[in-house]
Specification:
By secondary structure, the protein is mainly alpha-helical. The protein has 2 domains: 3-41; 57-129, Photosystem II 12 kDa extrinsic protein (DNA polymerase, domain 1), CATH 1.10.150.320. The protein is built from 8 helices and 2 strands, in the order αααβααααβα. It has helices spanning 3-28, 31-40, 44-53, 64-68, 75-83, 92-95, 101-107, 120-129; strands spanning 57-58, 111-112. It is elongated and about 90 Å long. It starts with a helix and ends with a helix. 8% of the residues are buried.
Length: 130
């Protein structure tokens, strides 16, 4: 057999295998999984309800009763949070060792640290004074 015909045969076989794999991948990504994903996707009305139900607690302004309702937060933790105000961000609960990492993990999606003004310089001054 000539080397050129052997090379042509190998090239043709490679192209056929590549084409077969492409068609197999297209078959796997067919409509049944997409239809299932579309059926599992939340409806637009459900999407609107989810964020509204999750009211964030402001750690800079919440009362002790509101803070005590947070999961995993003890009365001692509530007192530490109130004593350490104001916070520049909710991450200060962890970096200032107000909450343990486990407790912070529980409440991090439920709290926010609102700032008194939109001016970052004024906020920094307010925090230095206290």
């Amino acid at each position: 057999m000539k080397p050129s015909s052997l090379f042509a045969g190998l090239a043709a076989a490679t192209l056929l295998l590549a084409a077969a794999q492409t068609f197999a991948a297209d078959d796997k990504a067919a409509s049944p999984p997409k239809a299932k994903a579309a059926a599992d996707a939340p409806k637009p009305a459900e999407k609107a309800k989810a964020p509204a139900a999750a009211k964030l607690v402001d750690i800079n302004g919440a009362s002790k009763q509101e803070l005590a309702k947070l999961p995993g937060v003890s009365a001692a933790d509530v007192n530490k949070i109130v004593a350490g105000r104001p916070y520049g961000s909710k991450a200060h609960l962890l970096t200032r060792k107000i909450l343990s990492p486990d407790t912070y993990q529980l409440v991090s999606n439920l709290v926010i640290a609102r700032q008194p003004t939109k001016d970052a310089g004024k906020n920094a001054e307010l925090q230095k004074k206290k």
